[in-house]
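Chain A, query sequence.
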Amino acid sequence: MGDSLGLVRSRSSVDDLLAAARQRLQRCTPLQAWDAYQSGALLVDIRPVVHRRIEGEIPGSLILERNVLEWRLDPGSGARIPDAAQDHRVVVVCNEGYTSSLAAAALLDVGVSLATDLEGGFRGWRAAGLPTVSGATPTGRRVPAAGSSRAPPRTPRPLSPSWLFRVLASGLDEGLALHGGAVRNAATAAAGRHAWTSSSETGAAALSR
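Chain A, predicted structure.
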């Protein structure tokens, strides 16, 4: 009917929806998600069981399938889980960080004000060297936390100028020492050749007399 009145319905592509969702989120890198989890945030894995069985799971994460996510985490829902709270930070995890953005935006809409998602998804988490376990935890349950105490990889600290200067100075000293040794060896060899030549010349002179 709207079309017959000359009204054109606006249409958004999935890329538009994704961009709009991410503008509302303060997304977490894998290391930020690790820190958030250590501080009490809820990691919610919405991946299908077939993917979790093949690729693994995040220790301590809560398994909730996408089709029940809002009902389980909406603070006002009769089907909510005990962890559902308006001010509880929730980090949604999918395979690569796309579906999770849309899901996290939906949680914002139902009142989970601190909902966000994981950049790169589970695969980004695994690529960062963070803990994973094998298994296929049933939906609504937490993945056993065994092995989650392993520390995340540390970001290398930048080298200080003073440290670099000491290394370069040390290398220069060693180079000079080696060079000096070579010079000394060459001088000794030259002196030996000179002494041998002198003695040879003296001997020849004596024979000629």
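Residues 159-209 form one domain. Residues 174-179, 194-209 have pLDDT under 50 and may be disordered.
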